[in-house]
Design a protein that fits this description.
Elements: H1 3-20, H2 28-36, E1 42-43, E2 52-56, H3 61-72, E3 77-81, H4 94-112, E4 116-119, H5 131-134, E5 144-148, H6 155-170, E6 178-182, E7 193-196, H7 201-211, H8 216-229, E8 239-245, H9 247-251
Parallel strand pairs: 1-7, 2-3, 2-5, 3-4, 5-6
Antiparallel strand pairs: 6-8, 7-8
Helix pairs in contact: 3-7, 7-8
Length: 256
């Protein structure tokens, strides 16, 4: 038994004893992240021939998490927003809110000049009932699929991840497909890839301004996370963080 394996087993035993004895929930996924993620942070670069698909749980989540990366490689990206934002705009009913969010989403996508984009006509918090619509997504030629953080506190994120697992099991896809988690509602606990977005940060800020025109405080907080991610690097000011998984590794993660 290697020293690393031994330490890992000792750590898991300690955590289980600490929490299970108190009848608290032990979530093995957290320690899967902490112990199996590659600790070496690598720069995320996308070759010109690679196809990237983003599955966003609501309009704006894709810009929060990887707006800078998309802005650097727009022709590589197709963006699918799985819900219509029917609960996102204050003082509006569901139909009006969805209309405003669709307009914002399309404006952002056109400004970025991405390869393709679509917003689904599924109301917020109702993605769980719409797998038949979700399963129409074609993933057969995609090299990277970007999904929200598994620990995002959002009902539609949970539904998206459950649907996505089922989709991977049912639909044709490349053997070397990579699954990439991005930060939207919560930070990732053990990122292994970073994207330098210093030269594109104002573009990201502008796109966030379209989604959140009256929320300068929120925009500053999102940008502050990008700044914090770069705090260990003297020559970089802003980074987006990601966690990457093989298909098998992702399918073995236990969802909340």
């Amino acid at each position: 038994m290697s020293a690393f394996v031994q330490k890992k087993e000792e750590f898991l035993k300690f955590i289980k004893n600490k929490f299970l004895n108190k009848e608290e929930k032990f979530n093995s996924s957290l320690f899967y992240f902490a112990l199996n993620s590659n600790s070496q942070k690598r720069q995320f670069r996308i070759n010109i021939d690679k196809k990237c698909l983003v599955l966003s749980q609501y309009p704006g989540a894709e810009i929060k998490g990887l707006g800078g990366l998309i802005a650097q490689y727009p022709k590589n990206f197709e963006i699918l927003c799985l819900t219509n934002g029917s609960n996102l705009v204050e003082y509006c009913d569901a139909i009006e809110s969805a209309g405003i969010e669709k307009q914002r989403f399309c404006e952002v996508m056109k400004s970025l000049r991405v390869k393709g984009y679509k917003i689904f006509d599924i109301n917020s918090l109702e993605l769980d009932k719409n797998y038949q619509t979700f399963r129409k997504i074609d993933i057969s030629e995609v090299d990277y699929i970007f999904i929200p953080n598994i620990y995002d506190d959002n009902k539609d994120t949970v539904s998206l991840l459950k649907h996505f697992k089922k989709l991977l099991e049912e639909k044709e896809h490349k053997e070397n497909l990579k699954i990439v988690m991005f930060e939207s509602d919560n930070p990732l606990c053990a990122p292994d890839y970073l994207a330098d977005i210093e030269h594109i940060i104002e573009t990201k800020r502008k796109m966030l301004g379209i989604y959140y025109p009256n929320s300068e405080n929120l925009i500053n907080k999102i940008i502050s996370l990008n700044s914090y991610r770069a705090s260990k690097y003297n020559n970089i000011q802003y980074l987006e963080a990601f966690m990457t998984f093989s298909i098998n590794d992702f399918l073995n993660i236990k969802l909340i």
